[in-house]
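Example record

The entry below shows one chain as it appears in the dataset: sequence first, then structure tokens.
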Amino acid sequence: MNQSVSRLKIFGIGLNKTGTTTLSKCGEILGYRCTGCNKKLLRDVVLKQDLRRLQKVVSLYDLFEDWPWPLVYKELDIFSPGSKFILTTRKDEEIWLNSLKKHSMRTHPIKHCRKLAYGYNFPQKHEQEYLQFYKSHNEDVRAYFQGREGDFLEVCWENGDGWEKLCAFVGKDVPDIPFPHANKGTDKQAAKKFWPLINRFLSFTGI
């Protein structure tokens, strides 16, 4: 796979609910063309092992976050040389799991990416599998990029990482505006909207 890259590509390769939307907001403020979760590309990656459409999307944007990008960082490193990779994490895995659980209860019970990405529709009753996925992913990413500080950055917004660390990594001036924290808290309206569907789904299928 060969790709000619004329603009810097920045790939967010942290799992969802690790501050990926915040990374995208930062990218927009810094002037990057950003794109987020793409379920069609996730299907291509997981079900077909086909990266052709993904490569086309890479040519259209500068910063990428959420699915399917965390699953293909090795391939991206090959066909998009000179790119930057950012691993977003949470303070600890239990915080991440609890956040994902809350998120799962306010999203449509079927129209989501968890089954494709993690192998299970909901983290409830599959806590250990989800936790192992999170830990293994982060460990594998760190091992892969070991010694490549110029290409790889790990951040945790909860621990105080922000503009200074991010901008130094991508070579941008620190903007004179507060650091954005996107998707903070629970969308109560979404939870009310989808809870009856989720409850019915779980009662018929289990988790």
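Notes for this example: The longest strand covers residues 84-88. Residues 13 and 70 are 4 Å apart (CA to CA).
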